[in-house]
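user: can you give me the structure for this one chain? tokens are fine.
assistant: on it. calling the predictor now.
[tool input]
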Amino acid sequence: MSPLLLFSFVIGYFIILLVVAYYTSRNANNDSFFIGNRNSNWMLVAFGMIGTSLSGVTFVSVPGAVGKTFAGGFEAFTYFQIVVGYVIGYLVIAYVLLPLYYRLNVTSIYNYLSTRLGFVSYKTGASFFILSRTLGATARLYLVVAILQDAILSSFGMPFWLTTLIILLMILLYTFEGGVKTIVWTDTLQTTCMLMGLVICVVYILKTLGMGFGEGVNALSEKGYTNIFVWDPNSRLFFLKQILAGAFITITMTGMDQEMMQKNISVKNLKDSQKNMITFSLIQAVVVLLFLFLGGLLYLYGGTNNVTATADRLFPTIALAQGVPAIISVIFIIALISALFPSADGAITALTSSFCIDILGLKRREDWSEKERQRIRKTVHLVFAAVFLLFVMIFKWVNSPSMIGVILKVAGYTYGPLLGLFAFGILTKRQVSDRLVPVVALVSPLICFFIDKYQKQIFGTFEIGLELILINGLLVFLGLFLISKPKPVPQQVKEILQHGHS
């Protein structure tokens, strides 16, 4: 299909986003940008979070991973083991973390660390979020930009860095004023387009293969693509490891992540926010299962049409190939950028919020006027867009064949300290030596790096996979325990106890 025609559809789609942004960002202020004036509709937030959590990486990498091989055969539907863990993690967020955030009435969730552990702990948690979300979001952004570059913009002679810059400018244009208030609505639109694209692509592949849904499932089963559970305890894909990892990845990457929680705490009240979280988790599980089904169908299609592409390149190669109806190529591109924008726009907005509130102390600076605060917030927003451009170029240089593996691996190192900090604060009443917290938070990922690098020498045939995040969190928890002491009993309580004994 003509790259110019595809590009015209991308521009048309972007114009629709700008119209939505215009209407939702009128009379917006910093509270609108940071937490949507705490007036977001829970159903819109739940639906829109599907697009944010799945992203372009899920759209391309999850189907592509179905045909990957490991010691026990194809990876097949084993990713769904992690999704089972996700659902468990969302229940913990809904009934443990959300009540905590609403009770404290926080704008940034890392304010909890300041209240419970201390000011340095608070800064440490916020810094790890900024690092984690920057790496994760730019990895997701890189994958989709690479596909758009190959499919459309390279034919215009446009360099990769300029493609990335244009996409970032597009995102800035519709998030610059309204922030979360705008994103709640644009994410809903984009999630709708992404899911429609997913369903249409499934129907098209089934029709091309001459199969109905049931026949498709049977064909995948015969090839070994529908296997979900791995029973070998030594395997990195062992079901218990994957479910545990999925639960803790969700607790950290959603429940302890300012981007995801920023939308949840923008909902009117705790009850609605909990309904949002549970609804979202169930819809996400169904959607991921459909992505896995699509992945199996793509490998069947590739096998009958001499398609040699695998992993992240499989879906775009088939969708944009010669002979595929133009409408399918258009739907793929629109669905892909619909998966791209929610993960990138929310990340830049959340990083701006966290840096302004947690690092610069925007809420605490009473000497700054509202106009000055808005100027600072917009400057930070622009800086993060530049940081995104830099990191996308770094990922292009690294050029991993499967970005979802990279993202989950990075999460194990960078979100582990957040898991340890929040778990220690919630599960104990001990008082930490606040100034030593950054040391613990830095040493733990380094230990995990060496455990991961030399695991064959240490554990033999036993493989450590995504549960690295749990090990990291546990090491931080133990480190905090070593630098802490029991919380001192208040003097008034001491006097009462002494009086009682006398």
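assistant: here you go. The chain has one domain: 3-399. The CA atoms of residues 65 and 436 lie 41 Å apart.
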